Amino acid sequence: MRILIANLIAKIARTASRLTKSGGGTTLPGLLAEKIAPNIITKLAGRLPQGTIIITGTNGKTTTAKMLAAILEASGLKVIYNSSGSNLSRGIASFLSLNSNLLGTKVNADIGIFEVDEATMPEITGKISPRLIIVTNLFRDQLDRYGELNKTAEIIGSAIDKSPQSTVLLNGDDPLVADLKKFSHKIRYFGIDEPLVSKSTGAIDSKICLHCGHELDYEYRYFGHLGRYQCPNCGYKKPDLDYKFTKLDLKVDESTALFKNNSEKEDFTIKTKLPGLYNLYNALAACAIASELGIKTFIIQTALEQVSAAFGRMETIAIGKKRLALLLVKNPTGFTQVIETLTYDKKPKNLFLILNDKFADGTDISWIWDAELEMINRLTKNVTVSGLRAEDMLLRLKYADFDLKQILLEKNIALALAAALEKTNDNEVLYVLPTYTAMLELRKILFNRGLVKGLVE
Question: What is the pTM of this model?
Answer without folding.
Answer: 0.81
